[in-house]
Automatic annotation (TrEMBL):
This is Protein translocase subunit SecA. Residues 5-614 form the SecA family profile domain. One of its GO terms (cellular component) is cell envelope Sec protein transport complex. One of its GO terms (molecular function) is ATP binding. Monomer and homodimer. Part of the essential Sec protein translocation apparatus which comprises SecA, SecYEG and auxiliary proteins SecDF-YajC and YidC. It is found in: Cell membrane; Cytoplasm. CDD domains: DEXDc_SecA, SF2_C_secA. Residues 848-874 are annotated as: Disordered. ATP binds at Q89, G107, E108, G109, K110, T111, D502. It comes from the Bacteria.
Amino acid sequence: MLGIGTLAKKVFGTPNDRKIKATRPIVEKINALAADFRALSDEQLIEKSQEFKARLEKGETLDQLLPEAFANCREAAQRALGLWAHDTQLMGGIFLHEGNISEMKTGEGKTLVATFPAYLNGLTGRGVHVVTVNDYLAKRDAEWMSKVFAALGMSTGVVYPQQPEAEKRAAYACDITYATNNELGFDYLRDNMKSELNQMAQRDHYFAIVDEVDSILIDEARTPLIISGPAQDRSELYKSLDLVIPELSEEHFSIDEKTRNVTYTEAGNEFLENRLLELGLLQEGHSLYDPESATLVHHVNQGLRAHKLFTKDKDYIVRNGDVVLIDEFTGRMMAGRRLSDGLHQAIEAKEGVNIQPENVTLASVTFQNYFRLYDKLSGMTGTALTEADEFMEIYKLGVVEVPTNRPIARLDEDDAVYRTAREKYEAIVEEIKKAHLKGQPVLVGTTSIEKSEMLSQMLQQVGLPHNVLNARQHEQEAQIVADAGKLGAVTIATNMAGRGTDIKLGGNVEFKIMEAIAADPEGNPDHIREKIENDHKADEEAVKAAGGLFVLATERHESRRIDNQLRGRSGRQGDPGRSSFFLSLEDDLMRIFGSERLDKVLSSLGMKEGEAIVHPWVNKSLERAQAKVEGRNFDIRKQLLKFDDVMNDQRKVIFSQRREIMEAQDLSEIVQDMRYQVIEDLVEEYMPPKTYADQWNTTGLKAAIAETLSLDLPVVEWADEEGVDNDDVEERIQNAADDLMAQKLASFGPEAMRQIEKQILLQTIDTKWREHLLTLEHLRSVVGFRGYAQRDPLNEYKTEAFQLFEGLLDSLRTEVSKTLSRIQPLNEEQQQLLIRQLEAQRAQMDQAAAVPEAEEAPTPLNPDFDENNPESWGNPGRNDACPCGSGKKFKHCHGAL
Ligand SMILES: Nc1ncnc2c1ncn2[C@@H]1O[C@H](COP(=O)(O)OP(=O)(O)OP(=O)(O)O)[C@@H](O)[C@H]1O
């Protein structure tokens, strides 16, 4: 008897079926237009795009244009690539346009699918971003699909790391831009460190089509992209300061042991000013009280702390030229940990060892938050259904399962489970041999570089020729992939051969043609092409007869999706193929997550040496284990996202403020508002509302006004006047401050003033924001402990983060008002100098921004570092990215051994 659910599905269809059904009429419309578009000349296809744009202008919607635009794109792809898009590909394209995730099985041609919505949405001129997981794919897809877009009169750009600025801007200015998630995120951060609008690379966050969406929005969702800097070399400063510090004596300063703060006496200040002037660290006519001296003072403080508060062999030791901190609680060395804000450098200077560059976080964003910036988001993947709930909950993205064009002919075998890893690998070698002998190409999936190389050795021992595809062979990637589908080929790969690896049965014909032409430079290229194409057909048939590509996986991954991706290298576009997983009870997943029951059942079966268990029940049980892990990971991500959200909202405010400042023609109003707010706050603090005159602290107010606004005002006298209340005082201060700024405006001139205001605003925002980021980080690590006090850490965090943010805005206003009140009318030359200095500071930041680092990227401080030589890696953390460059965590890669 059918269950109610199953019955209902039979009668009404699943929601997925209904979505598919709803697109059928649109697909029919596109099909019906095919003949019309085929009749158009190449020029007319381009003219169609112009026509569509004009119709959009006149008010037609993208939805209305969709059938014609898709028909045009289909025809263009046919002409440019010789590929006639299947109906299922059109469907996938429609779902993308509607802002869904199109789940299309591996090998169904998703690269082409993306061109349809990219073209349609590109007609708006707002720029569509097609997002891939690596630079190789971005480049490959852009090159491949640019032919289609060119045939439609649309421009295609590709963005890549370390691209010259102008070229990058041009790439973003294109109708369709291919880029990796990394580069998009970094460009966004870098843009928000620029000081001129025309330096910004990205123009809009309109529509993104994310390929391998699960990998980007789920696996890597929380990877923060971090720009750190300025890795500016200040070693000379530290060294010079280190000469001065020991000269300070007790009369010069006092130290608060508890807060570890230092303050100088008048004598100390005078002494320091003179010495710093002598050393050229302080400029003639400047004092340590000038705001420009803040950095210098900070470093003097750090130097003093290094000398007076940090003791060698107690707080730190010097080992191999490094200052290594000692944990005060455990007495253990904390290798690799560095004190921040220049303190570590100050200690290095004190010990006379090499001073290592400092790094501060300038900006950061997670992928999750970056991609939520887009007006419309969509994605493609072979395998999303396992995470459908998460997509909906976090990104409001629906997942639609698009049927395959042709039935899948791949045979997915049940897992074979061996007792030990050794038996497993022996069986694998046997299996590869068997397939190889009958000519069936084999792709062997391994989980780490080490394992791929170990297996390679085993194959060498039995004399089996093969290729290895891992991060080390990354240059030959295209060639290895091109050969992997040839008769009898054996390719061992890490999970680099997952997403996007397109293995053609019989080999890649274009590569074969290129090789043949290169080998026979005298020959006629057309003849060579024809001959190779014919030979290739025979090769392809031979491989198909041998059973197509055999994917042999040597382990299961924590996530089912990764396993499916590997399987999907075989059986593409309805090709024959086969996939099989060889496992052992010693595999990580089996050891850690396989249920005890599984263990018991397997051992009670009394497996013999070399024998495997093959049973659907084992697969089910493993899948349950995987689902458990996936579920747990989802919960962790969800919780973390809530924390991220807090900072994200604040970042949006800050970045939009920056943008406003960059766009503004006149900033005087913004700074005036800031100034007024500062004044209001001060008056409120010293002359609180609803208090009597004798409760006012007018001398305090006078001093505060002098400090923050550089104004010497008779506040005390004003307050004594008959009938004067706090509002009157506030107004008088406002007027005096306005007068001061008016004088400055007159002496600087409006253009210079605008420049100065802008630079000071941007710079202060950036500095304050950076400090704030750090504080939030700290806050986040402390709130965890409050859980004990029956309070919800997330709520605590939210409240305090909000307070901190208010504090940030307060101090921002104060700082800007203070700095502006102190700028001095300069002569032309000095003025130029100041502007240049400010610009140089910014340029320095931009430069720092040009070398982004992913948080977990290895920072090879060691000059002997060689990613191919594990000996040279030192001791990477288990959660660090593996130094081999595989992109996986160390513990899942080389560290897993
Ligand atoms: N309409 C079509 N007709 C014939 N071949 C097609 C068509 N569309 C795509 N292909 C071919 O299918 C192969 C797979 O395409 P593509 O790499 O885009 O697949 P995919 O869906 O992205 O796979 P995956 O991401 O799982 O690797 C390519 O060789 C492509 O040329």
